[in-house]
UniProtKB/TrEMBL annotation:
<protein>
    <recommendedName>
        <fullName>Lipoprotein</fullName>
    </recommendedName>
</protein>
Length: 404
């Protein structure tokens, strides 16, 4: 009986009793990159690879509230800007050390507890001065509309900043503002019309603006973010009105707790809106004027294996085939097909009759993998340059292989 169970388990592990399909993808940290550092220092290649390797792990940590930001390093792909960059920050709290990682196409940072990195540890004591991360987002009214226009290079003939709607904010900690919208019309609250939006910010003190604009087509847009171009949400046409008034809540939003706070109310009407509306409820205002849009803010903190994890999509991949004659970049669909194929290929010993035709380089963000490409009259083989494993690749027009 035990023998039968052993055979059964072996079949499961082999994915089909002799199918011999394997995952040939073993993307590894790049061996070369462009680096921006703060402060300027000399990092060894071993340390750079160590940092990038940390960032590929599954995150299990959250930054302590009291810490010192010691240093920051941004890694750029040396050749292909489309593959983006990775920013790593090194933090100290007591005798513990952390790094945060974020790719240029990611919304949130991921946090890892790490061993001390000697190059950073050699910095002077000022870099290790700890302070408590402030857990509030501060909003400060901007009365000078020209300041907003200049910062974001707005064209007054196409878009006008709505008075009393502009604020400058500071986000000293890691997290995101989750914005929800409620519409009250003619004395009742409608079902959700505008989808909730997530506006993330990263560790360290970040500044930006939030404001409303009226476009040339009379539609209203909410802008939120840093210069030079904030994220924009154009409200549906049902929120157009000849008269509009902003009732703004200026309190800071707490990063701790699950409650949400009302940030702004927009009263829209076919008639002039008079007097102080702050003390009136949205239901009462909607009965008088027609429509009230409430904008609520809920601050979210990254938590283990949720907001701190990497996104499921949005990855940028690139495949490049190089031969003596030319270099071929695969297009998007072909690249995806090739990656999918390499996730379940057959590992086969390459025949002695095969002839090398070039090299295949795979890239995803700041990782890479290279294969030597070999060809017989009827078969195509890829040999991993690091492991020397050979894989049979089904015939396809992924790239033009020179005839032997």
């Amino acid at each position: 009986m035990r023998v039968c169970w052993g055979i059964f388990l072996s079949c499961i592990l082999l994915s089909g009793c002799g199918a011999e399909t394997l995952n040939a993808i073993e993307l590894r940290p790049l061996s070369s990159y462009r680096v921006e550092q703060e402060p300027e220092m000399s990092l060894s290649e071993q340390t750079k690879k160590q940092i990038l390797t940390y960032c590929e792990r599954q995150p299990t940590d959250v930054l302590p509230k009291r810490r010192a930001k010691v240093a920051e390093v941004t890694f750029h792909h040396p050749l292909y800007e489309v593959l983006g960059s990775k920013t790593v920050k090194y933090f100290a709290t007591g005798n513990k050390r952390y790094i945060t990682c974020s790719n240029s196409n990611q919304l949130m940072e991921r946090t890892f507890s790490v061993k001390p990195i000697q190059e950073f540890e050699a910095l002077d004591e000022d870099h290790f001065r700890e302070s408590d991360a402030v857990s509030t987002i501060e909003f400060e009214r901007v009365d000078d509309i020209k300041q907003i226009v200049n910062v974001f290079n707005l064209n007054d003939s196409h878009e006008e900043v709505i008075s009393n709607s502009a604020f400058r904010y500071t986000t000293p900690d890691t997290g995101a503002i989750y914005v929800t919208f409620e519409t009250v019309r003619n004395g009742r609250t409608l079902d959700p019309i505008i989808e909730p939006k997530l506006f993330p910010f990263k560790s360290g003190e970040n500044e930006g603006y939030v404001f409303l604009t009226r476009r040339a087509d009379d539609r209203v847009a909410l802008r939120f973010g840093e210069e030079p171009s904030p994220r924009q949400l154009v409200l549906p046409s049902m929120y157009e009105a000849p008269y509009m008034k902003i009732d703004t809540k200026e309190e800071g939003l707490s990063l701790e707790g699950d409650h949400r706070e009302l940030m702004k109310r927009i009263i829209l009407s076919d008639q002039p809106i008079e007097g102080d509306v702050a003390k009136q409820t949205s239901l009462a205002l909607s009965k008088t004027y027609g429509t009230v849009l409430e904008i609520w803010g809920h601050v979210r903190r990254p938590v283990t294996n949720k907001m701190s994890s990497r996104p499921a999509d949005g990855e940028t991949r690139l495949a490049v085939f190089e031969s003596d004659e030319n270099t071929i970049w695969l297009d998007g669909p072909k690249t995806q097909e090739l990656f999918d194929e390499l996730f379940h290929v057959k590992m086969r010993e390459m025949p002695t009759t095969a002839v090398q035709t070039g090299q295949l380089h795979l890239y995803e963000e700041l990782t890479e993998q290279s294969f030597d490409v070999w060809k017989t009259e009827t078969e195509l083989y890829l040999v991993d340059e690091k492991t020397s494993r050979s894989y049979e690749l089904p015939s396809n027009d992924y790239f033009k292989v020179n005839q032997p």
